[in-house]
Amino acid sequence: MVANIVGNYLIENQLLTTEQLRDLVREQRKVRVKLGLIAVAEGLMTQEEADKVNRLQTVMDKRFGDIAVEKGYLTHGQVEALLKKQGNAYLAFAQALENQGLMSIEQLEQYMIDYQGDHHMTFSDIDDLKSDDVDRILHLYMPIGGEKYINAVGTAVRTIMRCVDVDIYPEKAYLADRCEADNGAIQFVESEHSFTCALAGKEQALLETASVFGQEEFPEVNMDALDAIGELLNCINGLYATALSQGGISTELYPPEFSDQIKGIKCEKMLVIPLHVLGQEISLAVAVDHKINLEQEA
Predict the structure, then answer these.
(1) Who's near 201: CB < 8 A, 6+ residues apart?
(2) What percent of the residues of the chain are helix, what percent strand, and what percent coil, each to the nearest 5?
(3) Confidence (pTM)
(4) pLDDT > 80? residue 86
């Protein structure tokens, strides 16, 4: 998630192309983050010191951490802590950028300072973003008053990541009573605090999501495709209902409703979060104690 969020910021500032980001995301899954890059990112070593250790490794049969300790750049404790961070997605993205000669970790960190200022974030917010933890990142995209939706939204996003697109990423969420859409699906869940979850899109935005989840190539966003979207909602809400039941809260899932001829979805109050899934922007909406309805065309 973090690679696409940061990568698209770099694209907006003409520091990357869309094609380069696509290649970086692919490479990110394969790279093993070098200890030197992490040490520089953590401010424990300078780039010059890391480069010196890398050069020494060409003539010494020793690990980066061992040489860094010998030179007094790092302690044994710091090396152990850095080793635990080698699976971090942000650092893997930084490593991919460096591997492709696009920018160093120091340059990326400078752009992250710009990102922080542009988005009015705190240092803690940036740490949350770099963690690549879904719940910590989604918290950054919630509007004031959106806290009660976070658990349901988190379940939805994690499910879509597992079942449809691991590279999903969000835009800023907002509270609304209506969201424009040409097609979509909703599912009402009756509970102590009843809720509705919806997935909606314009034109053919939901097509790839329906095809991947339904494991069928749909020609367009028709009722068959939307049936697959309804099943995705059923999967999302089933997982959320299970979590609620573990806390002693009973739920009843109603059959999903869907239509390929709507003007939008509407509700007295709902949270809408735009999601980029498989290259398309779709809308995830969640309402608590209110029911989302499909707004049919006249």
Answers:
(1) 181, 182, 183, 184, 221, 280, 281, 282, 283
(2) 50, 20, 30
(3) 0.81
(4) no
